[in-house]
Amino acid sequence: MTHPTTADRLPRTLTESELMALIDVLRHERDRALIQVMAGCGLRVSEAVHLRMENILWTGTVPALRFIGKRGRERVVPMNLEVQDALRSWLEVRGINGSPYVFCTIRKHDRLSRNTVWFSLRSYARKAGLRHVHPHMLRHTFGTALADEGVPIERIRDLMGHRNISSSSIYIQVSAEQKKAAVERIDRRPWVLRWISRHRNRTYRFFNGA
Hints:
The chain has 210 residues and is mainly alpha-helical. α3 packs across α7 and α7 (135-148) packs antiparallel against α8 (153-160). A three-stranded antiparallel β-sheet has the order 1-2-3. The chain has helices at residues 6-9, 16-24, 29-41, 45-49, 81-94, 114-127, 135-148, 153-160, 165-178, 191-203, and strands spanning 56-57, 64-68, 74-78. The termini are far apart.
C-alpha cells in the first residue's frame, strides 16, 4: 500500500504559466476581473460572489478590497496592477446598474451564484488545456505566492483571513515544495505599459471622486 507523501497532501495551486494560460482564454471583462480578483487577492468563491461595490477602496495610495470574510473577520487586501486593470475594465462595462454586487449578471444584474463561478472556471480551464481546476485553487495560488515572496506568516494570515496561524503555515510548505509564482505574479509587461497602468489606475475614480 502506497502512503501519500507530504506533497500529495498539500493543496494544489496553479503555476504561473498555468494561470497565464487560464487568463489568456478569458474573453469577457467580468470573468477576467473575477478570476484576476480571486487569484490576485485570495478570495473564497463565496466572498467573490458577495463582493459589493462598497468593498472597493479605489482612493488612496494602493487600491484595495475590504470585506467581511469567514466568521465575520474583516480584512483589507491590496490589488496589484493587473487586478486593478481587469476590475476597472469590468466596472466600465458594468456601469451603474443598481446592483450592489461587483460581479453580477449582464441582463438582470443579479448576483452570480457559486455554481456559475464553478461552471465558468471549469469551462475556461478546459479551453486552456488545464484539468481539475476549481475556484479554491486560485486562493491557494495566492497564499503560496505570498509565501514565495517571503511575506511573514502573520501577514499571510491577515491577507488570507485565517483565524489560526497554523492554517497559513501550509503555504510555507507548498512554497518549499513548488517554488513557483510570486504574489504579484511577476508583471512581465514592458515598463511603459506598467507605467500607463499605474497612472490610469491612480487617477481612476468610478465613484466620481467619492
